[in-house]
Here is the input.
Amino acid sequence: MNKALVVLSGGQDSTTCLYWAINEFGRENTSSLSFDYDQRHKIELESAKKVSEIAAVAHEILPINTFSALGGNALTDNIDVADDLTVAEEINNTSQLPNTFVPGRNLIFLTFAAAYAYQRGIKHLISGVAQTDYSGYPDCRENTLSFLEQTLRLGMKYNFTIHTPLMNLNKSDTVMMAEKLGAMDAMAYTHTCYNGEQPPCGHCQACLFRAKGFAKANRVDPLIEPFQFFKN
Ligand code: ZN
Here is the structure.
């Protein structure tokens, strides 16, 4: 039996991947896993739980609260997140990484996910990383993930496959994919904002990237829609 585990952050991309996995492997064979890594905004975990409920898949949260002890990034520490999309795009064109980069995070998530999957007879791991249209995190790139897949196979003597359905899609393609897979109901409960605000702040890099994607796809973001309604 082909069982699949989706690393679910509670955001737009991993939620889209959850629906991709359901479509690919069947709902009964799909489950999701989130990490409580002492992120500043616990709302992410609530989103992940809610999204899993809507998608009707089993969900678990693993505590790995060591990133804040390592320090130095805006997602676990009390450091300001840059507000500007041009800053993010400039960074993308240089070798610099934004302060939202948590070193090793994605590698550690997937390694824990693999250990968890191994114990449960799951061979397919799904991650919502993308190497286009985002902040240029090196642990979200195709070559990093393909080497990690090899390492996990060798290191656990187990035939894992890491799936990254969004790897080469831009944000608007991802929106269209979510719509096609029926993920839009769940999308209303996802969380993207780096500032942890609900309704989303609308000016952090994550909010701006998300808004750009929905605008390009010519779709209304179901997360924003109810707040727009109240505004008018
Ligand atoms: Zn925001």
